[in-house]
Structures are given as C-alpha cells and as structure tokens.
Amino acid sequence: MDREMQGGMGPMENLPAEVxxxxxxxxxxxxxxxxxxxxxxKGKQNLEKRIVENEQFWKMRHWDGFDKNSVDKAxxxxxxxxxxxxxxxxxxxxxxxxxxxxxxxxQQEAKTLSKVLxxxxxxxxxxxxxxxxxxxxxxxxxSVYGVFWDQQKLGGLGDIAVRRCDPLNLFWxxxxxxxxxxxxxxxxxxxxxxxxxxxxxxxxxxxxxxxxIAKKYVYxxxxxxxxxxxxxxxxxxxxxxxxxxxxxxxxxxxxxLYATENDTAVPTRMQxxxxxxxxxxxxxxxxxxxxxxxxxWYDHGKYPFVFDVLFPEEGTPCGFGYIDIxxxxxxxIDLMNRAFIENTLAAARPRFFIRNDGAVNEEEFADxxxxxxxxxxxxxxxxxxxxxxPQLSGNYLxxxxxxxxxxxxxxxxxxxxxxxxxxxxxxxxxxxxxQEASGKLSRDMIDGGYDAVREVILLAIDLIRQxxxxxxxxxxxxxxxxxxxxxxxxxxxxxxxxMGMSGRQMGYRTPVFDIEVVPQRENEYTKxxxxxxxxxxxxxxxxxxQQAEQAxxxxxxxxxxxxxxxxxxxxxNGAMFQQLVQMQQTALQLAQMVDATKGxxxxxxxxxxxxxQPAPPVSMGGEAEMPxxxxxxxxxxxxxKARAQTQNAARPR
Length: 653
Fold this sequence. Notes:
Layout: H1 27-43, H2 45-58, H3 78-92, E1 95-101, H4 107-123, H5 126-140, E2 142-150, E3 159-165, E4 170-172, E5 184-192, H6 193-199, E6 228-240, E7 243-252, E8 255-259, E9 268-275, E10 281-287, H7 292-295, E11 305-309, E12 311-312, E13 319-320, H8 322-348, E14 352-354, H9 362-366, E15 384-386, H10 394-411, H11 428-438, H12 440-467, E16 472-477, E17 483-488, E18 496-499, E19 505-509, E20 513-519, H13 524-539, H14 548-556, H15 563-598, H16 602-611, H17 637-650
Antiparallel strand pairs: 1-20, 2-3, 2-11, 4-5, 5-6, 6-7, 7-8, 9-10, 12-13, 14-15, 16-17, 18-19
Helix pairs in contact: 3-5, 3-8, 8-10, 14-15, 15-16
C-alpha cells in the first residue's frame, strides 16, 4: 500500500479517494472531525498568540504590537543574544545515538543499528532539522519532530523521513500533557489548488475558498491564500481486538483523500507453487498480512510526533521558552533606552522660546551658518529664552544596568557562560570551575533535548521493523575509520520465539533496544581537556602493558568520554602481555631441557633477550663446529671484493 508524505511537507501521491456507501469514513465523519478540530483550536488560542508574539520579539519588531508609530522605537539585542547563546550551546553538543541491546542475542543487531541510524539521520539532513527545532524550542518553549514513512524516497522503495513540524499547525485535545493521550491529533496545511487537482483529479471543480485554520506568523511578504485549500491530516486511536490501533485520514473540505479504515484490501504476495506438466512455473497470489483497516497506519500505534519541551507547563504538551521569561525586561530596557536617546537628542539640539512680538528674524536665527541675525526694534531679554533640558540622573542608568543584569541572571546567560570571567579570577582551576558551574543550566537544557532525540530514534526503529522488508545499502564507518558498505533489512527485528526449559515454544518476544544519546561534537575546550588527559596517561605509563592492572584500577575511579573503549584496549594489551610472558617462560623451560641434554646455552640466550641484556656467544656444546662457508682460494681478488660489497649492502645498519 502506497503511503504519502504526511504533514504536507512534500508532494503527495495519488491515494484512492472514492468513497463508497460501505466506507466507515465519509462526509458525516469528516464533519464531526472538523467540529472536533475547531474545539481543539479554541483550546490553544492563548498558545498560538504567545508563539506569534515571541516570533516578533525574536525579529526585534515587538513594538509593532504596542505602537503603530514604531519606527522611532529603540530596540536592543539583549534578548536576541540570550537565544543565540542557548542555540550555540545546543549545537556544540549535537547528539549521536548509540543502540544498546536488552538481550544477549541482540548484541550484533544493536551494533549494526548504532552504525545505520546515524546514516539515516544524515540522509534526512537531521542536523538542520535539529537546529531549526532548537530555534523554535528556545523562542517559544516547544518544538515538534515528525517521524514518518515516506514511500517516495529511494525511487519508490521508501525510507524514514524526520522533519520539523510547526506547533501552530498541530491541534490536540486541550488539557493533556502527553500528546499520546490525545483522542485525536490534527495537522493542517495550506496547499495550492492546482497542485491538489494534479494529484487528485477527482477534486476538479470541487475546491472552494476556505477560511484558514492555523494561525499565521507576521510575514514580511504578502501571502495570497485565496487559491489555496486547507488539507487536514487526521490521526486518531481506536481499540481493535484488545489493542490500540492508530488510524489515519487525509481530507480537504468534505472530500476524503484517503482513510485507513476504508482500506480493507488484504495485501498479497506471489508464491511459487511448483510447475505444471509442461514445466511451466505455477505462481499464485496469496495473502500477505492484515488490511490497513485492521492493522492501522503504523504498527507502533503512536502518533508520529515528538514534542521537545524546554520549560514544561501543566495541562499542555507545550511549554514556555526564554523569550517568555525575558521579554518584559527587554521591553523595560527598550523604554529606558528610548528615554535616554530622546534626552540626549534634546540636550544636543538647543531650542528656544521666542515672543511673537520680539521682531526677530527666525530663519536667520535658526541658520547656524549666518553670523548675523536681524531684528526690528529693540531686543529685550525675554524676546528669546533657551529651553532648558533637564539632565537625567545617573540613577536611571543604574536602573537600566540592573535590568540588563536581571536578564542575564534570569536566563543564565552570564559572563562565565559566554566565555568571559571576572578580572579578579586568574587561576586556571578557578576559571574552569566557574565555567563548569555556569554551564549547569545548559547541560540540563541539552539533556532534555536528548530525551526527545531518543524518542525520535525509537520511532525510527519501529518504522525499520515495519517497512524494511527489502534490504538497503548503507555506507558506514569501520573500526579503523575506513568506509564500509553493509546491506541491512528488518529480519532480525521481527518477533523471535521464546523456548521454554522443556524445549517447547512459550511465545514470541520483540527485540527491544535502549537508546543512549551522547554528544557527537565537543567544543574546543572539551577537546583540549581530553587531549591533555591522554598525554598525562602517556607520561604516567598507563599505556604500558606491564602496568595494565594498575591502569584499570585507576580508570575504574574515573569518568570521561571514551573510557569504555580505552578500558577494552588496555585490558586487551594486558592480556596479550601475559600470554607473551607465559610463552617466554615455556620457551625458557624447553631451552633448559635442551641445554641439559646437548650442552648448549640456549636458555642463557633466551633469558638475555627477555631481560634486554646483550646475548652471550652461542655455544654448541661438545658438537663439532659448524663449518663456515667454503672459501675458494683460487677466487680472483675482484670477485671477492664484489662479494664483500654485496654482503655489506644487505646488512642492516
């Protein structure tokens, strides 16, 4: 069964859309769904308003909502700097998934998944998606990942698609905190009418102008929506046969484009049945599973959306972000900035009171390039009086600085967090401790983002389990950093039989994995720390095989990235060294037995090699000396010289 790209993030396929009288999802069900959608929309009006307002603060155009004459409003980038630094912290710790097995016989599969999953993310440009989600998360407190199956990828073979979804386009049951608890979930998007008719010819002449459902941002460009229609992706859960099934329906207006509950066709596959009397192969079509009406949209039964929340709130799956915390201090700072600028301009540009009967030529008086100003009659002292501009006290400047300090402390965007430290702190250890303490907010924020990435990876594994029937080739990185090509499918992810003690099958188990998310890229300070740690290990001799036991005891009390791999290498080198010592002892014992029988000194030679001392001359005991190379006394002097030169050329220096 063909699947489309949900959420309107790309071209849609021609899915069956004709609704018959026996279809479960028709115009009546669509009308009820639209009623539910509008109820959900009312429940998130405050959230939508806040998200749009926060976007204006991010663009430093927040005065548009307060004053129409906002051109002269002074704005500063204190709030923008908070968002920039928090986003930089997140991207400095870009995640990398590591798959861990829960059963011993799944170890090889977990190792393969740990290599394949990063490739799938890279093919989806996940770094850009991760970055965009963090922008949304920091600004408004929540970002949403969508994990779908895209049948159009790989030339129709299909693959996983991970995208960022706008919370303004999603609608859920009001009052819940876990999106999976919502009875229904809607995703809407405006699609051009011509595009819809090209993909669904049955819509020709049926599309009419519709009111927009999702709230829009304040764009710089004027967006014309008169020739667009709202396409709704409707996800809902139903109980079927004692289990929860995720169903899916796509519709526009009152026209159903596709619904899983209407798809009762049983999938089939071709099966070889042998040959007929003439040797012609017999191939028949046999059932290959349940229909979509029974199976549902995805086997995992979850909504394909992961909400990544910054600061959680009760009663909503979304949260609030740094702009919500800092936008009021930003407004106060802007107001004070404007007052300071206006006071400065007023003091820098003198103004005067002029009597109407003062008989002063105002044009000449206003022109500072003219040295003479003409008057008609006597000029009194009260004819022209300067307007005195009051000077602002330094206390006002202190108040604004306090507001700036409040924003830095509230957001955790302190000097130490951004890389600078007070001038009074000079010790390297004190600077490192100060920066480490100031980064605890960033670490907590990033850990929360890793939880969302973990959920994304688990959904991706479930899609691999369901759809990777045909093998796909991946280029992965080998143990030594070389490129390797591996073919992968879902055979080892399918349910496996559980055998009892008596040898009887007790049921099935589905391979389940734990996902560990670690930073893939470290900042320069962390890299330098790891490099210095490695040099210290080298200087202490911890990489010497003779000190493997002491090194392992030391590493057991330490915690740093790559510790497990280093422990394995030191353990392996220590074991190889112990094997070498045992082989040397065995060789020494055998040499002693030979020496006792033959009168040689082989044992002395081996002992010298083990201890690194110069080896004594070889003694052959009572045996006759071994004859040396025969010398031809009649050999010419030129030939002997050439032979000696050849021997010297081949002798190691």
